[in-house]
């Protein structure tokens, strides 16, 4: 059958079509192996790569603005991608393994947890970078909340306290800080 189809395909599509078909035929067992044992959710991988790209661009902007651009920071991108790749494989294996041919039901939540953790980490990093590049674009309350998720929350909160405050900044829904005593509202005033 192959002896008949190969000349026909070569005649109809040309050598490039034949090369693509032969390559696909040879690679298909490897693709099945990857899908079954390593990773299968390529749509999620596309979203994750998009966030990694956006994080990288905003990180470069942040470094450029602080005049701290270095090749060492770029090497961390490859390490992060390697760690994410290993986490994706781990999540796939934990949710896809079978025991005596029966589907695993104990760890079905695991891949969702890992995927959400990676996406949240990348989104937080993008927001941190944007807050450093243009602080007026990201609300201050959001920046304070993000500081709690950083690797060193005390240092991040200390850095935020060092930045000058607005004329009257709401610290919590009940407390309002006023810069001087003359701007304190009189009794009966309504504060929004």
In words, what does this structure look like?
The chain has 192 residues and is mainly alpha-helical. The chain has two domains: 1-37, no CATH class; 39-157, no CATH class. Helix content is 67%, strand content 4%. The chain is built from six helices and four strands. The chain has helices at 2-37, 42-66, 71-96, 110-133, 140-147, 153-162; strands at 98-99, 102-103, 169-170, 176-177. The strands form two sheets. It has a two-stranded antiparallel ribbon. Strands 3-4 form a two-stranded antiparallel sheet. A hairpin with a 2-residue loop joins β1 and β2 (102-103). α2 (42-66) runs parallel beside α4 (110-133) and α3 packs antiparallel against α4. The radius of gyration is 27 Å and the shape is flat. Residues 166-174 have low confidence and may be disordered.
How many angstroms does the end-to-end distance come to? 80 Å
Uncertain stretches: 166-174
Q: What are the secondary-structure elements, in order, as H or E?
A: HHHEEHHHEE
Structural class label: mainly alpha
**Sheet of most strands:** 2 strands, antiparallel
**Cα radius of gyration in angstroms:** 27 Å
Number of helices: 6
User: Tally of extended strands?
Assistant: 4
**Helix percentage:** 55-70%
Dominant shape: flat
Number of domains: 2
Oligomer: single chain
Write out the strand line-up for the largest beta sheet, numbering strands in chain order: 1-2
Summed over residues and divided by their number, the pLDDT gives a mean of 77
Beta fraction: under 5%
